[in-house]
Amino acid sequence: MSDTNALWQAALSYLKDKVPPEELESWFLPLTPLQSNGHELRLQAPSSVYTRYLSEQYLPLLEDAVAMACGNPLRVVISASPTKEAETLPAFTFNPRYTFDTFVEGPSNAFARAAAVAVATNPGSGYNPLFIYAGSGLGKTHLLHAIGNHLRQNRPTLRVSYVPTEKFVNDLIHSIRLQKMNDFRQTYRQVDVLLLDDCHILAGKERCQEEFFHTFNTLHEAQKQIVLTSDTPPHNISGLEERLRTRFAWGLVADIQPPDLETRIAIIRGKAHVEGYDLPNDVVSFIAARSRDNIRELEGYLHRLFVFMTLTNRPPTLETVREALYPVLPSERTSTPQEIIRFVAHHYGIKVADLKGRDNRRSVAFPRQVAMYLLREVLNLSYPEIGRLFGKHHSTVLYSVEQIAAQRRKNPNLDATLASFVEQFRS
Ligand SMILES: Nc1ncnc2c1ncn2[C@@H]1O[C@H](COP(=O)(O)OP(=O)(O)OP(=O)(O)O)[C@@H](O)[C@H]1O
Q1: Are residue 195 and residue 244 in the same domain, yes or no?
Q2: Where is the segment annotated Domain IV, binds dsDNA (predicted)?
């Protein structure tokens, strides 16, 4: 192995720990080391798309890797291969976790999923373009990757490109600046399937719309499949030219609505299973109830729970999940058990220590029962959880909560007072 090759292999081993495997495969492995001396390492990329992307996104990291590999700083120079005339988008590595199998189907997304499956099975022949719209975190990108993964597996010779619209816009700006519009056009028009994510980003960008209009027409006329996603339906994207708006609606428009509780529960179960966890029903329902219209948010809660469990070595119980999520759940951030206990003690003019103590005189026992009632009513804590906070058996808590509930029904003043407490803690 030449010195240059050995240097590059050592730099790649360093990069392996610094970038995700798919990035390494897409962007770094295709590079060829050409030459090195005491000052610089020259690398050749398959096309100027690579050169540009690597220079913008990864040059400092590449220089670090090379410095680590040879022990002193070297300049890294990347040039595009002169022999490759046609520019192509680099083979994109689709997220292996985003497949049709892992996409949980429910009434809110069944239509969009079926349309995506149809397109993945017969690209270019049916619904073209397929336009999927939904709010944030509801699975648009997941479905695009699922189409990509399906095609890679079943039609490996097709050129399938996943492009975030932001990348399309950046590439265009770059190409205009470097006067490389021909390269740009070739890149985007030489695909069999174009998966364009978040196309609403085109709104208000006239030059980008003009260019995408021609890209769209070229692909569509050649019966190449186009799939677009957006956060709103075509007719609601303000700042979008009419000719694009109508084209976006030419094929099939499908929406994804926020999932119902059962679907959210199934999604959480699926994600937990992938991570190797089997969560009890009450924990899954607790998380599922915390966000109605964003799966990404639910995933965030789930990951927070897993990290918390790992760091504290706690089992997945309701108590654990509540504690893990306190700082990130807006409705619960305002009232913690300790805040409620402090509030009740203050309201009745006694000390927190008395409230949690063994004094059973009515002046203390009644506020204690009120505190237990509020913890149940406001935070929905279980009887054993409340019991632990006061050092009491859960049957005592049950009795106290029932006592206060019964008195509330009989005593309008107490009812109004407790209603205002509950309201205050919930708001
Ligand atoms: N039906 C589903 N089944 C399984 N996972 C889902 C489902 N819907 C969404 N998800 C998961 O939710 C997360 C967010 O989804 P995704 O990134 O596809 O959302 P998006 O609609 O593209 O959001 P944005 O508009 O913010 O980019 C992903 O991890 C995805 O796997």
Answers
A1: yes
A2: 310-427
Once rounded to an integer, what is the mean pLDDT over residues 2-7? 84
Binding residues for ATP: 137, 139-141
Q: Which domain holds residue 31?
A: 3-80
Final residue of a domain: which of 283, 306, 333? 333
Ligand 1 contacts CB of residue 297 (under 6 A) = no
At 397 the pLDDT is: 95
Distance CA 268, CA 325 (A): 15
* Ligand 1 atom closest to the CA of 270, numbered from 1: 4
Question: Mean pLDDT across the stretch 347-370?
Answer: 93
More confident residue, 39 or 145: 145
Classify the C-alpha dihedral 295-137-92-249 as positive or negative.
positive
Q: Look up the pTM and report it.
A: 0.64
User: CATH code at 387?
Assistant: 1.10.1750.10
In a domain, 176, yes or no: yes
Q: What does the mean pLDDT of the chain come to?
A: 89
Residue 85: pLDDT band with limits 50, 70, 90? very low
Distance in Å, CA 104 to ligand 1 centroid = 10
Number of compact structural domains in the chain = 4
Ligand 1 centre from 96 Cα, in Å? 14
311 shares a domain with 283: yes
Q: Which of 208, 241, 256 is the last residue of a domain?
A: 256
* CB neighbour list of residue 214: distance below 8 Å, 6 or more residues apart: 185
| Residue 95 in domain | no
In the predicted model, is pLDDT for residue 81 greater than 80? Answer: no
Give the model's confidence band at 88: pLDDT under 50 very low, under 70 low, under 90 confident, else very high: low
DSSP labels for 51-114?
A: HHHHHHHTHHHHHHHHHHHHSS--EEEEEE-SS--S--PPPP---TT-STTTS---TTTHHHHH
Is 142 touching ligand 1 by the criterion CB < 6 Å? yes
Give residue 145 CA to ligand 1 midpoint distance, Å: 10
277 and 211 share a domain?
no
Based on the fold, state whether residues 126 and 209 are members of the same structural domain. yes
The CA-atom distances, in angstroms, between 127 and each of 119, 310, 318, 344 are 7, 46, 46, 62
Ligand 1 pocket, mutate which of 111, 141, 262 (most atoms under 8 A from CB): 141
CA–centroid distance, 260 to ligand 1, in Å, is 15
